[in-house]
Write a structure and sequence with these properties.
seven-stranded antiparallel beta sheet
């Protein structure tokens, strides 16, 4: 196994997009520190969800699991947190997974208005607590909470070290699983990776894939696992209470940190 990855500073932690329902007013300094990024691809794999690929004008120095604030000119002064869905690439491009949410003007714009060629701005990356730790991983993703966890999978793939990774990708139905081709590609490429879809409301799901995210996660949990959970607030609240009661040690349970006090909510 590789040496332990030291935790980054948690002082400026931020939540990934899937855990928040509102946009954020621009804090002082973000505009001057932001990086323009051109949208090169915009795909809408299912209603209300978009996958954007953006190319920053200069390389954005981020780590898998971090979150960056994103701004579109359609809504001046409004930003929204997103975690890149990929580990840093040689070409510098970044993939963002966006779900349009109620009261989320930025998210709705990114899904419904932004098109290839448009310019976004990316603010400074912030830590969320979802950095890579030593040991085998159990990753539990709800909706677009998949993004930072997929980035961690790519980080492991870039430097395999003998660990095994299980990724639970949870949605209501198969039609809501918005990134199946990439997940299948990762599964086929790496024998240390097991991807388990979890369908909570799909009557056609196989028994091994039917159930909520945490129920399936507990079926695959082993005492040595480092367990990461990312997704909607209800999933995080449930994980925070349910998993320790089911035997997951609290020092091995990793959820995105709340927004730091110095970042306006």
């Amino acid at each position: 196994m590789s040496a332990t990855h030291h935790p980054p500073s948690e002082r400026s932690a931020a939540l990934p997009q899937s855990t928040r329902a509102d946009d954020t007013a621009e804090p002082a300094g973000w505009a001057g520190d932001s990086v323009p990024a051109r949208v090169t691809e915009h795909d809408r794999p299912c209603p209300g969800t978009a996958i954007l690929t953006v190319r920053p004008w200069s390389r954005l120095a981020y780590r898998p699991g971090q979150a960056v604030p994103v701004h579109t000119a359609h809504h001046p002064g409004r930003w929204r947190w997103y975690s890149p869905a990929n580990a840093p690439r040689p070409d510098g491009t970044i993939e963002l997974h966006v779900r349009a949410v109620p009261a989320g003007t930025v998210s709705a714009s990114l899904v419904n208005e932004v098109r290839p060629g448009d310019l976004l701005h990316l603010g400074p990356p912030h830590d969320t607590g979802l950095y890579l730790r030593d040991g085998d991983l159990l990753l539990v993703a709800g909706g677009t909470g998949l993004a930072p966890l997929r980035a961690l999978v790519e980080q492991v793939a870039a430097a395999p070290d003998g660990r095994r990774v299980t990724l639970i990708a949870a949605t209501r139905t198969f039609a809501d699983l918005y990134d199946p081709i990439t997940l299948d590609r990762l599964q086929q490429a790496h024998d240390w990776l097991t991807i388990v879809p979890a369908f909570s409301h799909d009557p056609h799901a196989a028994p091994a894939e039917h159930g909520d995210a945490l129920t399936l996660a507990l079926r695959h949990h082993r005492p040595h696992h480092q367990v990461y959970v990312c997704g909607p607030p209800a999933l995080l609240d449930d994980a925070r209470h349910r998993l320790p009661l089911a035997g997951v040690p609290e020092d091995r349970l990793h959820l995105p940190h709340p927004m730091a006090p110095e970042i306006p909510r």
